[in-house]
Amino acid sequence: MTENPSESHPPGPIMSRRETLQATAGAVALAALPPLSAAATSAPALDTNPVTLTITVNGRAQALSVDPRQSILDVLRETLNLTGTKKGCNQGACGACTILVDGRRIVSCLTLASMHDGAEIETIEGLEKNGVLHPLQEAFVEHEGLQCGFCTPGQIMSGLGCIAEGHTGSPEEIQFWMSGNICRCGAYPGIVAAVADAAGRT
Ligand code: FES
Ligand code: FES
Fold first, then answer.
1. Has this prediction a pTM greater than 0.90?
2. What is the whole-number distance in angstroms between the Cα of residue 24 and the centre of ligand 2?
3. Ligand 2 pocket, mutate which of 86, 140, 150 (most atoms under 8 A from CB)
4. Residue 132 half-sphere exposure, CB side, CA atoms within 13 Å?
5. CB of 109 sitting under 6 A from ligand 1
């Protein structure tokens, strides 16, 4: 059954007004506390020893040794040279870094690579097969779902998740479930049309 957009959060770290007010109240309360003693503020030393893991990226197994502080986004871009996944805000707010992990869409800037040993990862580079675009990529071209293209890999990966989740019953439903992906060019009408079109084709 399709979820009612008024009852659920869209994907991504979007806070409700209530949560925003609660978070703000918490920050105000913290600001009112006396300063912590030196002993209380000394943090335990970070373990920065490399972590070994094996992940499958676009169907190809990758045995890696990563810094435990590295996000999966940085491993994709800097270690595997898969720069199609974009780094926009690097803090979970824009959706440009969206990938699929075990079939679920996530913002890759907010999760550590070391947490994904054994995971199946799909990025924008894995969609085209033998020179043929994925139907959703074709739909983005046909419906002009992009201008500068910076947000587009994240929009397309999020669109795949949106379709797989069955959140394509209406343009409004697609808008809601794609709202974690920001487009600074404002190509939203084409993006929504492309997701709706591809949902009908796949
Ligand atoms: S770069 Fe990850 S959400 Fe913006
Ligand atoms: S096409 Fe430029 S940010 Fe979306």
1. no
2. 31
3. 150
4. 3
5. yes
Higher pLDDT, 40 or 84: 84
Residues 30-61 pLDDT 10s: 445 555 555 556 777 778 899 999 999 999 99
Q: How far apart are CA 52 and CA 64, in angstroms?
A: 6
Q: Which of 193, 56, 192 is closest to 123 using CA atoms?
A: 56
For residue 145, which atom of ligand 2 is closest to its CA? 1
The token duo for 21 is: 């007010």
Task: Return the amino acid letter for 181.
Answer: N
CA distance 67 to 177: 33
Instruction: Look at residues 192, 149, 184 and name the one whose alpha carbon lies nearest to residue 167.
Output: 192
Tell me the pLDDT tens digit for each residue of 132-183: 999 999 999 999 999 999 999 999 999 999 999 999 999 999 999 999 999 9
Is 96 a pocket residue for ligand 2 (Cβ < 6 Å)?
A: no
